[in-house]
Design a protein that fits this description.
Layout: H1 6-14, E1 20-23, H2 27-32, E2 39-40, H3 50-53, E3 61-64, H4 69-80, E4 86-88, H5 92-98
Parallel strand pairs: 1-2, 1-3, 3-4
Helix pairs in contact: 1-5
């Protein structure tokens, strides 16, 4: 599935949409600042949290990190696990803050 830009995500949020967003940054990074409504699952914890994500397997999932690298890995991992609609936030949280 194609990645999503910060502008597109913000437009959708402004329109009242509440996409399922996973923040794969470390907990301390998430505590400093976060995208409202996102769920924090650090990249290293993703394998242990797969059961909790099972209900979202067929729905769109947006993953993000600080700049896009860790979330690209998360997207690849989730896709390998059978999640079909995973999108990476282009530029990560930094780009989202500036959009």
């Amino acid at each position: 599935m194609p990645d999503i830009t910060p502008a597109e995500l913000k437009q959708r949020q402004a329109a009242g949409e509440h996409p399922f967003i996973i923040d794969v940054r470390e907990t301390w990074e998430n505590e400093e600042a976060r995208i409202e409504g996102s769920q924090n699952i650090p990249l290293g914890m993703l394998p242990q949290k797969l059961d909790e994500l099972e209900d979202h397997k067929e729905q769109e999932i947006i993953v993000h990190c600080k700049g896009g690298g860790r979330s690209a890995s998360a997207k690849a991992y989730l896709t390998q696990q059978g999640f079909t609609k995973v999108r990476n936030l282009v530029g990560g949280f930094q780009a989202y803050q500036q959009a």
